[in-house]
Amino acid sequence: AQSVTQPDIHITVSEGASLELRCNYSYGATPYLFWYVQSPGQGLQLLLKYFSGDTLVQGIKGFEAEFKRSQSSFNLRKPSVHWSDAAEYFCAVGPGGYNKLIFGAGTRLAVHP
Amino acid sequence: EAGVAQSPRYKIIEKRQSVAFWCNPISGHATLYWYQQILGQGPKLLIQFQNNGVVDDSQLPKDRFSAERLKGVDSTLKIQPAKLEDSAVYLCASSLESLNEQFFGPGTRLTVL
Fold it and tell me: CB distance from A87 to chain B under 8 Å?
């Protein structure tokens, strides 16, 4: 069965520091992979997606993610975190693309000034 | 362009009571999703509509949950009777078609006492 694991429940970083959020997936074929962000009281917003091709994908708000098939990972990165990045981040796999998304449990990011 | 609208934003009920949530998708979006997001977990798909027909309701607890999408636009999700474990945020999302990006509403936070 498909599944997504986000090993870190909470992460705290200082403003201006770099960030990496981990995501591991379990899926038999090449998956469609996504990162979403959820700010308090808001719905989920798509940060970026990987469907095929270049394994380093760029997203909105300065985020990027790298697909590593050998490690079954799709980690999210940002070189310099802003206080406004404090939110919850969800990795998801979509066996059919955007359809039938399976989400990880999320990583809550806190940013210290 | 208006986003996905949901109401109410918050609801507190006692167990065994009934409750209903409403969702108005983005205009023109044929596909509508309801997700359940329990605290500490990622969103889980409950039901997917294509226009006014159900595409997937395999994870909907049909003994107590029901949903409809009359006229292929607005949708309501009902719980009757509610249990303590139904406490969660209920997210509605819509997309142009099932293979397109999903856009999420702000959710309804349900607390069952």
Answer: no
